[in-house]
Specification:
The chain has 487 residues and is α/β, with parallel strands linked by helices. Helix content is 39%, strand content 19%. The chain has helices spanning 38-55, 60-76, 78-89, 93-117, 151-163, 176-188, 206-211, 224-236, 259-271, 288-303, 323-338, 375-378, 394-401, 417-426, 461-464; strands spanning 19-22, 29-33, 121-123, 129-136, 139-143, 166-170, 196-198, 215-221, 240-244, 249-253, 281-287, 342-345, 365-368, 385-391, 406-407, 411-413, 433-434, 449-450, 453-454, 467-474. Bound molecules: NADP nicotinamide-adenine-dinucleotide phosphate (NAP).
């Protein structure tokens, strides 16, 4: 709580057990942090609310400059930030470095493009004028996950700070140090005290924050369980929420024209971030004629991975984010095997599991013969486990692609652009990528449908989720009141 003047423990509240962060490669504890309690939480909301009154009045160009400076500092600290992310959640160091760049790009995008999106929009009317202007809402709570500890925060913080909202950021407990660094960076970039507030909040205190009259909205990226809980609380207190939840993205292969490119994309789509991405390709749907070659090719790529220390650039398969995550995934694999699935490669824990044998590793795994009674069919597999299905025709492929409660992303691979496009149109999800695994760019909207959540982040859409699109309708004086009080 670097910029917090509130002391770590309150005399008035019970002292909750501090939480600690763990390096998933070694299983060793990194550091311990206290949760905020009772009145400390209220004090931070009050501080953010006071800051909002000033922040909203700043010219948008000043807010944009602070975002641009944030991007610069993130890039200046690339080595340290990447090492921290790798240590706290086990991401391969090359991927951590790429994430640093992406987070900086998001701050830059809103610094450069954001002000242009915020200008008034004129609506043609018969008499007088109508304008839609954009105003901030107030203090927001953002709850973010560990899997992309920098990118997820940038996605929420950058557009909202640009619009003029102030934020409380509750990061995943497992990446507390990254959370503190981000608060420090935004503050160093020039954000006044109270504009960006890291909060080490217990889940049981989320309602205390959301219920506070100063809070105008909440955004959560994470599991369905957490999303449903926040939505319930937000509903009870009539606060808007945006939810970015899980996914079980299909990867639909249409033909065998370029098997190497297809397999490389399939492996990359499944294994990026050690498979812990909401938009990872998770279900591979392959025509009968090329199914065997696809399973063999994917299995070979998975078997060739170099398991080891995520901070070593030679490593290509690191640990999962925690031992608990590894156990959950292993249970899902075991459930599938018990019910008759087949393992083409992997399926267990590797023999070498780091310096103390406690690393949260799982072998990269290809499962086949998965049926609807198995968890692997319906649940999100959050790690390096691919499920491959064989289908007879395009309609069956689309039926299978849509036979999930999730609707986040999806991929269609095929040589005929019209056919690929028509299949993309029939996939029920928030995003579909053609001839590329689902990915993200600052200027592209990101979000899902069905149990994957609601609302959008990034692009211009991300700017308006927590903004008041306010109508100003003006009539020349003396125009009369013929349409008064309808609606
Ligand atoms: P998680 O347990 O839901 O944690 C995510 C965040 O929510 C953390 O800050 C966590 O705090 C907090 N949280 C947990 N339970 C909560 C509750 N009942 N109320 C309010 N906040 C709560 O998620 P995870 O399983 O670690 O993360 C992976 C999930 O996130 C996957 O399902 C993945 O697909 C999804 N995800 C979605 C997107 C997207 O954009 N759609 C992006 C990335 C990840 P603590 O850490 O303190 O528990």
């Amino acid at each position: 709580m670097t910029s917090t003047s509130v002391q770590p423990m309150s005399a008035s509240g019970p002292d909750p057990t501090p939480f600690h962060t763990v390096d998933p490669y070694t299983g060793r504890s990194i550091a311990e942090y206290p949760y905020l309690v009772g009145e400390q939480i209220d004090a931070i909301v009050e501080r953010a609310d006071a800051a909002f009154e000033q922040w909203r009045e700043e010219p948008v160009e000043r807010r944009a400059r602070i975002l641009a400076r944030t991007a610069e500092i993130i890039r200046e600290r690339k080595d340290d930030l990447a090492a921290l992310v790798t240590r706290e959640m086990g991401k391969l160091i090359g991927e951590s470095r790429a994430e640093v760049d992406l987070a900086a790009d998001i701050f830059d995008y809103y610094a450069e493009q954001g002000p242009g999106f915020l200008g008034p929009r004129r609506i043609e009317v018969e008499k007088g004028s109508a304008e839609l202007i954009t105003e901030p809402l107030g203090v927001l709570l953002g709850i973010e996950p560990w899997n992309f500890p920098l990118y997820q925060v940038a996605r929420f913080a950058a557009p909202n700070l640009l619009v003029g909202n102030t934020i409380l950021l509750k990061h995943a407990s497992s990446c507390a140090q990254t959370a503190l660094e981000l608060e420090k960076i935004v503050t160093e970039a020039g954000a006044p005290v109270g504009v960006y507030n890291n909060v080490f909040l217990q889940i049981s205190d989320v309602e205390r924050v959301v219920a506070n009259p100063a809070i105008q909205g909440a955004s959560l990226t994470g599991s369905e369980r957490a999303g449903a809980s926040l939505a319930e609380i937000a509903g009870r207190h009539l606060k808007k929420c945006v939810l970015e939840l899980g996914g079980s993205d299909p990867f639909v292969v249409l033909d065998a024209d370029d098997p190497d490119a297809t397999l490389s994309a399939a492996a990359a789509g499944r294994l990026g971030n050690t498979g812990q991405s909401c938009v990872a390709s998770k279900r591979f749907i392959v025509p009968e004629a090329i199914y065997d070659d696809f399973v063999d090719g994917l299995s070979r790529r998975f078997a060739d991975l170099v398991v080891g220390d995520p901070s070593d650039p030679q490593t290509t398969l690191g640990p999962l984010s925690s031992e608990q995550a590894a156990q959950t995934l292993l249970d899902q694999i075991d459930d599938a095997l018990d019910k008759g699935a087949t393992v083409a490669v992997g399926g267990a824990r590797p023999l070498d599991r780091g310096p103390d044998g406690n690393g949260a590793f799982i072998e990269a795994t290809v499962l086949t013969d998965v049926t609807p009674d198995m968890e692997a069919f319906a649940e999100e597999l959050f790690g390096p486990v691919a499920v491959v299905y064989r289908v007879g025709d395009e309609d069956e492929a689309i039926r299978l692609a849509n036979s999930t409660r999730f609707g986040l992303g999806g991929t269609v691979f095929g040589s005929d652009p019209d056919r690929a496009r028509s299949v993309a149109d029939r996939i029920r999800s928030g995003m579909v990528w053609i001839n590329h695994p689902t990915s993200t760019e600052p200027e592209l909207p990101f979000g899902g449908v069905k149990s994957s959540g609601f609302g959008r982040e990034l692009s211009d859409l991300g700017l308006f989720e927590f903004a008041n699109r306010k109508l100003i309708r003006a009539f020349p004086a003396g125009s009369g009141t013929e349409n008064a009080a309808t609606g």
